[in-house]
Amino acid sequence: MRIACGIEYDGEPFLGFQSQKQGNTVQSCLEQAISQVANEPVSVFCCGRTDTGVSARHQVIHFDTTANRSDRQWRLGINSSNHRAISVLWVKQVADDFHARFSALTRSYQYTILNRNVKPAINRHHLTWELMPLDEIKMQQAAEILLGTHDFSALRSSNCQSKEPVKTVSEARVVREGELIHFYVTANGFLHHMIRNVMGVLIPIGKGEKPVSWMGEIIESKDRRKAGVTAAPNGLVFAGVTYPDCFEIPRI
Fold first, then answer.
1. Which residues are paired to 166 by β-bridges?
2. Which of 117, 196, 233, 249 could form an SS bridge with 243, CB 3.0 to 4.6 Å?
3. How far apart are the C-alpha atoms of 159 and 18, rounded to whole Å?
4. Is residue 150 part of a domain?
């Protein structure tokens, strides 16, 4: 049977989601905990891989198993065996044709900047600190250029393995709440480091170092060398995912 789970995790202790030969990852911790509950080896598939230090508010995973457990038994068992920085929010059996990654329609992320002249002490692993004043209105104007379908080759990592650089962005909002600036973005998919590279463009625009039009020029160039530096992972959170209604996957 195929089981889907919604999970949240603090990315600070992990070297990203995907299992690696060395170092602690979200996937390796999940597979160890789930395999213990299932009493058999289990492989985990996720909706979207996250980088070192990146957290998730509602990541979706799935795994296949022959073990017969109730949803409650799965949830309680995995959480009791899991790393303390990972929590299973919900569990449900799904159809065999459901796939956490390939069935997804959209993915959403949030990036948060603390914009003040004093560095953060609280939640410092989950915020990017920017000393210089940022103009969120100009950042929003630049973010709107992302909307629609574009070739985002200029905003992808050199290590990106995606065969298709064209993505459709349906949401791109910059919102200030006091000293915090939030960037909300939703698309049908993202390239490796795409959001952090977008922030590497939005932040200089917010500081007045570059014009709003720079975002469009970068996208049009399709040249990674034309864009800004890759922003820090601190502040980036995988916020959620949507699936076709037929799978009845919870939205949090």
1. 151
2. 249
3. 15
4. yes
Q: Is the pTM of this model over 0.85?
A: yes
* pLDDT per residue as tens digits for the range 73-114: 999 999 999 999 999 999 999 999 999 999 999 999 999 999
Helices in 119-239 by DSSP H: which ranges?
136-143, 194-206, 214-221
Are 96 and 197 found together in one domain? no
As for how many domains the chain has, the answer is: 2
Q: Are residues 113 and 231 in the same domain?
A: yes
Do 120 and 221 have their domain in common? yes
Q: Residue 156 contacts by C-beta under 8 Å, 6 or more apart in sequence? A: 162, 165, 191, 192, 193, 194, 197, 224
Q: Are residues 146 and 222 in the same domain?
A: yes
Q: Provide the annotated active-site residues.
A: 51
For 60, the domain range is 2-103
CA dist 149 to 80, 104, 115, 190, Å? 43, 17, 30, 12
- The enclosing domain of 202 has a CATH number of 3.30.70.660
Element (H, E) at 215: helix 214-221
- Here the tokens at position 23 are 């170092």
Per residue in 72-84, pLDDT (tens digit) is 999 999 999 999 9
User: What is the Cα–Cα distance from 214 to 234, expressed in whole angstroms?
Assistant: 24
Q: What's the rounded Cα separation, in Å, for the pair 16 and 8?
A: 13
C-alpha 129/C-alpha 235 separation (Å) is 9
Closest CA to 32 of 78, 67, 69, 97: 78
DSSP 8-class letter at 231: P
Are residues 162 and 226 part of one domain? yes
